[in-house]
Amino acid sequence: MPAPGELTFVAPRGAAKPPRHLADLTPDERREAVAGVGEKPFRARQLSQHYFSRLAHEPEQWTDIPAAARGRLAEVLLPELMSVVRHIGCDDGMTRKTLWRLHDGTLVESVLMRYPDRVTMCVSSQAGCGMNCPFCATGQAGLDRNLSTAEIVHQIVDGVRALRDGEVGDAPQGGRTGEGPSRLSNIVFMGMGEPLANYKRVVGAIRRLTDPAPDGLGLSQRGITVSTVGLVPAMLRFADEGLKCRLAVSLHAPDDELRDTLVPVNTRWKVREVLDAAWEYAAKSSRRVSVEYALIRDINDQTWRADLLGRLLKGKPVHVNLIPLNPTPGSKWTASRPEDEAAFVEALESHGVPVTVRDTRGQEIDGACGQLAATER
């Protein structure tokens, strides 16, 4: 039975599960897997070192492991999970979007973005999405399946390797370039899918990403943001995990009447229930909540809605990210007028609510999640 808040999906008939991978397993489980093929358990730590720390994924690079054992260990713990269909860059090479093909032919996307003061990677947690938000390219495509923990983790591991090798932006010199840091600092679960609908595997991925090396990548939990459209039971469960990640609530409307249309899951959990669960997470994690709000022209960008949102959020541990909508081809939804965006910001600030208009990246490379995969179908 699924845990509270975790949604299930029906896999297509004949669909094969992703192969078991080192990143799916805890350190103890890795040792058991290695011992199960007749190798000494300490080989699991060596493999973890190669995968997470050295980013050495080819068996011939594992010179501390006997040549006769490398192929067998690769088959057991480091099978090929996914392959690059193509990379597309923009923003003078500082943004790179990757289209991945998984073992079963499923397509997913990730985006690596370098800024002057940080490097952020946006990753997918599902192939497609079942939340059916009408302005979202991924939602229009529907849900194919959940990603495994390792399929999530590998997107980030590959991003770390790409940064190390100077593939995004200028080649690193001494760990830095003229365009800012070359080490991954932030991960946002805002790519394809609803992360909390794939709860167990997303939490597993967070553990792998933040476990100290060589068991994981050794990243900071505080640099990870997990988004949700408002799956209240899963949000409350997430609050009890003891994590220090940031929770981002994709609200998009402050009133139930409109949000029922823009975010259909609102028909099950209303705005106030979603926000109450967010404040519960904030209290237990001591982290401020992000409220994500895509500004859509003449739909949700009225000043009175900004005023209502400000009254709901006033005095709460929250920051609002206003997102100029990146429209999808053929969609009736488009970005707000600059003057309406400015008025929305002013109305929120009048309530003392901190607000930022998100920097838009990747518009010329099918930047909205799901657009690139849709062109490949």
UniProtKB/TrEMBL annotation:
Give compartment(s).
Answer: Cytoplasm
This protein's cofactor list reads: [4Fe-4S] cluster
Q: Which reaction does it catalyse?
A: adenosine(37) in tRNA + 2 reduced [2Fe-2S]-[ferredoxin] + 2 S-adenosyl-L-methionine = 2-methyladenosine(37) in tRNA + 5'-deoxyadenosine + L-methionine + 2 oxidized [2Fe-2S]-[ferredoxin] + S-adenosyl-L-homocysteine; adenosine(2503) in 23S rRNA + 2 reduced [2Fe-2S]-[ferredoxin] + 2 S-adenosyl-L-methionine = 2-methyladenosine(2503) in 23S rRNA + 5'-deoxyadenosine + L-methionine + 2 oxidized [2Fe-2S]-[ferredoxin] + S-adenosyl-L-homocysteine
Q: Which PROSITE patterns match?
A: RADICAL_SAM
Residues binding [4Fe-4S] cluster: 129, 133, 136
Kindly give the NCBIfam families that the UniProt entry links to this protein: rRNA_mod_RlmN
Other comment: Reaction proceeds by a ping-pong mechanism involving intermediate methylation of a conserved cysteine residue.
Q: What does this protein do?
A: Specifically methylates position 2 of adenine 2503 in 23S rRNA and position 2 of adenine 37 in tRNAs.
Protein name (database record):
Probable dual-specificity RNA methyltransferase RlmN
Q: Which organism is it from?
A: Streptomyces marispadix
**Taxonomy-wise, where does this protein's organism fall, top ranks first?**
Bacteria, Bacillati, Actinomycetota, Actinomycetes, Kitasatosporales
GN (gene name): rlmN
